[in-house]
Amino acid sequence: MTGWRPTFAPFLVSVGTDPKIRTSIAMILKFRSTMLAAAAALAGTVAASAHPHVFAEARLDVVLNPDNTVKSLRHLWRFDDLFSSTVVMEFDKNADQKLDDEELAEVSKTVFESIGEYNYFQVVTADGKDVAMKPPANLMANFDDQQLIILFETEPKEPLQLAGKLDFGVYDPTFYTAIDFTEDTNMAVSNLPASCTRQVIRPDPDEAIAQNQASLTDAFFTDPAGTDMSKIFATKLELTCQAKG
Prior knowledge:
- The structure is a single chain.
- By secondary structure, the protein is α+β, with helices and mostly antiparallel strands.
- The protein has one domain (6-241).
- It is built from eight helices and eleven strands.
- The chain has helices at residues 9-13, 19-22, 26-40, 46-49, 81-91, 101-116, 205-222, 227-233, and strands at 54-64, 70-79, 122-126, 129-130, 139-144, 147-154, 164-170, 177-180, 187-189, 196-201, 235-241.
């Protein structure tokens, strides 16, 4: 897979403006769900789902309001060549080697519904407590150099102040998709106040398993959305903000 390309940043600006992009994102999750069902019979086993089959490089931008509350999270995922080509083959119903508007509209609906079960792979906490996020208004996709690009934006359901410790991460709790932030700068926040510091946390999987072994087995079967496991394994952007004195 090729490296991260900063030129994808303009895609974030175009969220909700291109009708063709607006209708396309669903291809990824429909195919993902189909393959996961075949590999793990939907219910799955730990062994079958513990190894990722799809790989994506990612960027996460935390957008702030002027009052230093969190406005939104902007996600961009670039998928590997093999998976991207398989998506085209899977959804190219008229065999013209591309995805037209009708095909993209169908996959868009499916992705929106399927990814929502897992909170769009987002891990957001404030001082260790879960932060509820609104579903994205649009899920978008594009192809660049034969690779599938996914973009979407979400907002907190309630005002989220820059106070205490805020964690923002991305993780697929089914282990089917490996979403990787190849550079710390790919987890970004603009205009961070001087009272806040940022750090990218990359948990070591072996260490995380050793520290949480007693709870991981139960969590796998009792937590359908994988929230607990996502908190343990996700790469996170951590913002620590001092209270105003």
